[in-house]
Amino acid sequence: MKTKVSLTINGKNVEAEVEPRTHLGDFLREQLRLTATHLGCEHGVCGACTVLIDGNPARACIALTVALEGADVRTLEGLADDPRMRTIKDAFHTEHGLQCGFCTPGMLISAWDLLRRRPGLSDGEIREAMSGNLCRCTGYQGIARSIRRAADELRGASANA
Hints:
Elements: E1 3-9, E2 12-18, H1 24-31, E3 50-53, E4 56-59, E5 72-74, H2 83-94, H3 104-117, H4 123-129, H5 141-160
Parallel strand pairs: 1-5
Antiparallel strand pairs: 1-2, 3-4, 3-5
Helix pairs in contact: 2-3, 2-5
């Protein structure tokens, strides 16, 4: 039996009928075709499926869609025009913060939230804050450099504003 749910996805009101056991990751990918949300471990451990729910980072693989009635969900697609995300994406490109790209959407969302909340972090603090997102390719050097570069650029941009 399906349940009707109404929520906001990337600024648009969405109403759908879903199975009660449908997690947000499957709903986003299969019903809405928002494929930037990657599903890795499906246990909430790896961070590949990180999205923003009501402004906070959350794992789409363990959030049941029916439990999100009225929620505001933002995926990587929903941050495409965001200046902070553009800076972060550029830094990931410049500093080689990605390889296969599987973890990248979750890394980008987590970095966006981190730099929104705590822009003046040390390198150690960046590594600790990002430790909930797993990458099997990069060894984290490029990821940490990318976030540091984005933080420095964002801090410089706000100082010049």
